Amino acid sequence: MLIRKIRTLLELLKNLSRLPEIERKLAFLVENSDFSVLPRIEKDLAFMKLNIDYELPREIDKKLTAWLEINDLTLLREIDRKLTHTAENSDLALSHEINRKLTYLLEHGTNHDDLALLPEINQKLTDLLKRSRNRSGGAAIRFSRSNKSDAESDSSIATESEPADSIRPLISGHLPEFLSSIAFKGNNLPYEELGTVNQYRGGEVHSEINGLLSDQDIEECVRRDIFPLPATIDRENYHGDRHFDWWLSGLIDFYKIKAKLEDSGAQLSSGDAILDLGCASGRVLRHFAIQGNDLECWGADINLRNVEWARLFLPKNIKVFHNTILPQLPIEDNSLALVTAFSVFTHIDDMEFAWLAEIRRILKPGGFFYVTIHSQKTWESMKAGVPVYDALITMRDSIHDYNVTAAFLSSPMPDEKTVLSWDTADSYNSNVFHHTGYIEREWGRLFDIVEIMPRFSGYQDVVLLRKPMI
After folding, report:
1. How far from 219 is each of 122, 225, 247, CA to CA, in Å?
2. Residues contacting residue 124 through CB under 8 Å, at least 6 positions apart
3. pLDDT in tens, 366-397
4. Using one digit for the tens of pLDDT, what is the confidence trace for 34-57?
5. CA–CA distance from 319 to each of 286, 296, 298, 415 (Å)?
């Protein structure tokens, strides 16, 4: 069963450069009846499927695995686990030096004098992990050395110096095959805990306020928000280390939504229910819960680690759940005053209208849907440095419906709904562009189109829709 699953993953990941090496390893294991590292290969493949940009950790892993096959060294296995942790947490500061030393070891064959370098590499990784935890005041995660099998060791990261109050998400290590194709779970490593927004005042800010909020408004919002901020890795790396900027960007979107509802003759009242679809770790949702007027706040996200962060750290008036790519939400009919979706329909290709119908179902008559899209104006503004442009250029060899080049992306948008999808993942594998004429004609079948606002959310447009009263 496990071999079939690995082969399925290999097929899904067939365009990645690391696959020939993994196929060779798999063949060796099958021929020699040595299945001890199959669970780790499966884990590596699942990680590759979700994190396609980590070229250096892949190369490191390949080299480490080569040494494991030759020497079966306990120390190398420990280093391998630590490298997996650093890759999963995007903390790769020492990877280039580690890679250089491993290259040296491989080039010099099995001369055991060269193995003296391995403890030094191991210590550097330990120091790296300590710095990763100490940035938030926690202790280092340490990896135990024991007589357990590789499969047991890989699934049981010890935390012998982890503080008693360290908080982990409730995420099991089991990832059913059906679930991996429709949602993400993430790991269950302890969260790095940042302080409240007040601790990060004065940091670098890129978000544009444009007169929406006064300094006094911001100060009052800071005063009310006594909840921690997510670490960069737990907000999908958005805004880097600009923690205050991340918080402020969500506050700005919250106030933009309020203003647009008021322009439409509506406002959210005490007891109204809202849903932030694709809430991640609560960039916008936290402001509805903290700055809103006693609202019933719902959040949903496709990544379970994000959901767990919101559940554990944000106000208890938030109800948050793990959703999938399938258009089904466990919310009552005609119950919500507002649904928001930031950077969600920019990635929905299949079942677009089923998702629109599901959102229409849960909205009250007269309820609003505030959603960002990539429009033809987004397409026209794409250039190097714009995230969606850079992503498409990076993935162009895996996009088959169009020949994606710089010239193609500088030409007019080819279709009124243009989907650029890649075959290296089962979900979250596309960027979708809608012409506003298509939105008005097709989405207008289900909603009243209140307004389409060009570049109202960064480089994305915002569409404000309303469920008809009858």
Report:
1. 46, 10, 13
2. 94, 97, 98
3. 999 999 999 999 999 999 988 899 989 988 88
4. 556 566 666 555 555 444 434 555
5. 11, 8, 5, 39
pLDDT at 152: 34
What is the pairing mode between strands 318-322 and 336-341? unpaired
- Here the tokens at position 378 are 């987004």
The number of C-alpha atoms within 13 Å of 17 and in the hemisphere containing its C-beta is: 10
Neighbours of 222 (CB within 10 A): 18
Cα separation, 272 vs 443, in Å, equals 25
Neighbour-count burial for 240-268, b at 16+ CB within 10 Å, e otherwise: eebbbbbbbbbbbbbbbbbebbeeeebeb
Supply the Cα-derived Rg of the chain in whole angstroms. 24
Q: What structural domains does the chain harbor?
A: 2-160 (no CATH), 193-466 (3.40.50.150)
Query: DSSP class of residue 183?
Result: -
Token readout for 292 is: 């809103």
Tell me, what's the pLDDT at 428?
A: 72
Of 95, 37, 98, 94, nearest in space to 66 by CA: 37
Query: DSSP assignment of 224-292, as one string?
Result: H--SEEEPGGGGTTTTTT-HHHHHHHHHHHHHHHHHHHHHTT----TT-EEEEET-TTTTTHHHHHHHS
Phi and psi angles of residue 94, each rounded to the nearest 5 degrees, phi first: -100, 5
Q: What six digits make up the tokens of 17?
A: 């450069």
Amino acid at 188: N
Amino acid sitting at position 459: Y
Mean pLDDT in order along the chain per 10 residues (470 residues): 53 50 61 59 56 50 61 61 59 55 59 59 63 42 30 33 68 86 90 91 90 94 95 92 96 97 95 97 98 95 96 94 97 98 96 98 98 97 90 89 94 96 77 97 98 95 96
Tokens representing 190 are 């302890």
**Tokens representing residue 258 in the block:** 């309020």
Residue 59, token pair as written in the block: 């190369």
Return the ∠ at Cα 98 (arms to 93 and 104), rounded to 5°: 155
C-alpha closest to that of 345 among 470, 465, 222, 214: 465
